[in-house]
Write a structure and sequence with these properties.
With about 200 residues, this protein is mainly α. It is built from eight helices and no strands. The radius of gyration is 17 Å and the shape is globular.
């Protein structure tokens, strides 16, 4: 957020795409369901591939499990709200918008998503962050605004934080096959709905 404040001096909210876009309330709801289902599909795939116990996400899970009260509230504010807003301000609002002024949408989305993934500095988490970044970048291009991506990112992180604290992680093969499969189908339906809304 500080980097954006320094780098974006003189840029308008419109150029940073921090103004409402073309999305309706229902489109935003679909986008939120899409990001949650993508997150679950990626999480299940990671577990099924045997990578669920490695990397920074595993350490975050262990730290969050059993959190409650003020501890959980602080985690939601830090991981959900602050991290989600700051990352979207920099990556989708600033970086992708500046790339978009020079490049086509696909290149701007992909390069921004790769940078977003690399920022996570983790061989397990980075590919997941890239996939999430592509989705959030796509959403930004569809709506013409970074605000829906920001809302989706915050909701995704906050829900992940609360579920991890209350339920823990789903380590079983069968449950991840069911959850991952259902989430993948739901994500595909959300993409189809968003595509039909904005094409």
């Amino acid at each position: 957020a500080f980097t954006v404040m320094v780098a974006a001096r003189g840029l308008t909210l419109a150029r940073l795409r921090l103004v409402p876009g073309r999305e309706s309330g229902f489109d935003l709801l679909v986008a939120i369901v899409g990001v949650l289902s993508l997150g679950q599909a990626l999480d299940s795939a990671t577990t099924l591939a045997g990578l669920g116990t490695g990397g920074s996400m595993s350490a975050i899970r262990r730290a969050l499990e059993g959190a409650s009260g003020p501890e959980l509230l602080l985690a939601v504010v830090t991981i959900g709200i602050l991290a989600g807003v700051a990352e979207e301000l920099f990556f989708r609002s600033y970086m992708q918008s500046m790339f978009r002024e020079r490049w086509d949408a696909r290149r701007a989305v992909l390069v921004t998503a790769v940078c977003f993934g690399v920022l996570h500095l983790d061989p397990v988490h980075a590919p997941l962050a890239i996939a999430l970044g592509i989705y959030l970048g796509y959403l930004t291009e569809c709506t013409g605004s970074a605000l829906p991506a920001m809302v989706c990112h915050v909701v995704n992180n906050a829900v992940y934080t609360v579920i991890t604290a209350i339920v823990g992680s789903y380590g079983g093969r069968d449950i991840n096959l069911v959850l991952g499969g259902a989430a993948a189908v739901l994500f595909a339906l959300c993409i189809l709905r968003l595509h039909s809304s904005f094409s």
